[in-house]
Design brief:
The protein is an alpha+beta fold and 223 residues long. The chain contains 7 helices and 7 strands.
């Protein structure tokens, strides 16, 4: 029974990053490696195209899923928006989290990219009023599952979710998960209080420590 309790503590405690002195830097660095892995994967040959067509992209370097009877999922990451000049903004910071009922046990960790295709849904995300499910169309491609990396995505799809998974669960499910702004991490990274909208939509702040991340996105979306 001790290992079950430990498992639940690991999963539920890992779904959101606690703001340590270098949390924002670590998230940006981890997001760079996650994006580089997915965008250069032969399993997701269309990922650069999905990125090119996106209004924004959310990168969760470690999306956890697991639980016993009550399942939990989530993780912390960054969101970057497409600016008017075609470049990518500097990163804002978000948490994604949710829970579900059901007899299940196991842990998976996924490097996850969420390509936001809809301006309307992006506005909801930035305003902090967004929950996956309902009317949002979600197309999911998962490395290692029986879903091809070349999966066609409808022009009406609001989000394309791509995950490189490991563990007992295959893939990620975002149904019921909500997106929360991490203003504390933005303040840590930029040294000032700034809204998620201003970071993602106007490009009003910058930080040289995010250049590698912006470059890997720019290179991939220019293919």
């Amino acid at each position: 029974m001790r290992w079950i309790i430990t498992l639940m503590m690991i999963v539920m405690g890992a779904t959101a990053a606690q703001a340590g002195p270098d949390t924002s830097d670590r998230l940006v660095s981890d997001a760079y490696f996650a994006a580089k892995t997915i965008l250069n994967s032969k399993n997701f040959e269309k990922a650069p195209r999905w990125l090119k067509e996106s209004k924004a992209v959310i990168i969760i370097p470690s999306f956890y899923k697991g639980g016993l009877i009550v399942g939990g999922s989530g993780g912390s990451g960054v969101i970057l928006g497409r600016l008017d000049d075609g470049s990518w903004s500097y990163p804002g910071f978000v948490d994604i989290g949710g829970g579900s009922l059901g007899l299940q046990i196991g842990v998976s960790v996924s490097e996850t990219m969420i390509f936001v295709q809809s301006k309307e849904q992006l506005s909801q995300v930035l305003e902090g009023h967004f929950r996956f499910g309902g009317d949002a169309g979600i197309a999911v491609a998962t490395l290692g599952a029986n879903i091809s990396g070349g999966t066609d995505v409808s022009s009406k799809t609001d989000f394309v979710v791509v995950a490189k998974s490991s563990g007992l669960y295959v893939g990620v499910s975002l149904d019921g998960s909500s997106i929360r702004n991490r203003s504390d991490l933005a303040r840590q990274f930029y040294g000032q209080s700034i809204s998620l909208q201003d970071i993602v939509m106007t490009g009003s702040v910058s930080n040289a420590r995010a250049e590698d991340l912006r470059t890997v996105l720019q290179d991939a979306s220019s293919r």
